[in-house]
Design brief:
Number of helices: 10
Helix content: over 70%
Strand content: under 5%
Oligomer: single chain
Order of helices and strands: HHHHHHHHHH
Radius of gyration: 17 Å
Distance between the termini: 44 Å
Structural class: mainly alpha
Number of strands: 0
Number of domains: 1
Shape: globular
């Protein structure tokens, strides 16, 4: 089980061992399931785009089909998260912390949502943790379903197209191929910066009070 979880956090292992099926499940889980926040969505989608250039047999689809399938998985993931949040309601804020759930993640998402409104469902796609909890929080606060779906679809296609398309475009670049590990780490650092800023601001305001 531990070895399996390690593979789930390694983008290359996900694609190598699970192919397109596991790739779609990971994108769905990270955007809709409460426990999906630790999955490597950004780097996974970028690497999937790269693979479509030279190792297409691993996924069995071209870049256009890949973008469509990943976008559908991301859209369905958000819908699942929305209905889960709508079902559990505000009681989610009273849930005790566990290995896979931290209330602070939900609070960070709420602060980000209060600052950016519905755009959180688009901007949050590019931010780990936020993309998992944003649709859940939207359900908790009962965001209008039509409005939610518009942001959901726009966010999904923007996220998938930019990352998978970027990976496909740079897939033949030798420097990118040789420095893929550093690029993945860079993805993680860059996407965590807004979260850290939100978290620090929240702690600062709490300290003043």
């Amino acid at each position: 089980m531990i070895e399996f979880l390690k593979q789930l956090t390694d983008p290359e292992s996900i694609i190598h061992y699970g192919g397109l099926t596991l790739l779609l499940f990971v994108v769905f889980a990270e955007t809709g399931l409460l426990v999906g926040f630790f999955l490597p969505g950004d780097s996974l989608i970028f690497i999937a785009g790269m693979i479509c250039v030279s190792h297409n047999d691993l996924l069995g689809v071209n870049i256009f089909v890949l973008v469509i399938l990943l976008s559908i998985a991301a859209i369905l993931g958000n819908i699942t998260g929305y209905w889960f949040g709508k079902k559990v309601g505000t009681s989610l804020f009273n849930r005790k912390d566990s290995i896979l759930f931290k209330k602070k993640y939900l609070e960070i998402t709420r602060d980000f949502y209060e600052k950016n409104g519905g755009k959180t469902l688009i901007l949050g796609r590019f931010l780990p943790i936020i993309r998992t909890f944003a649709p859940i929080l939207a359900g908790v606060i009962s965001v209008d379903l039509k409005k939610f779906m518009i942001y959901n679809i726009l966010g999904a296609f923007s996220w998938i197209t930019l990352l998978a398309g970027g990976g496909y475009y740079l897939g033949t670049n030798r420097w990118v191929q040789n420095n893929l590990g550093s690029i993945v780490i860079g993805f993680i650092i860059i996407t965590l910066i807004p979260l850290m800023m939100t978290y620090l601001k929240k702690n600062k305001s709490s300290y003043k009070q």
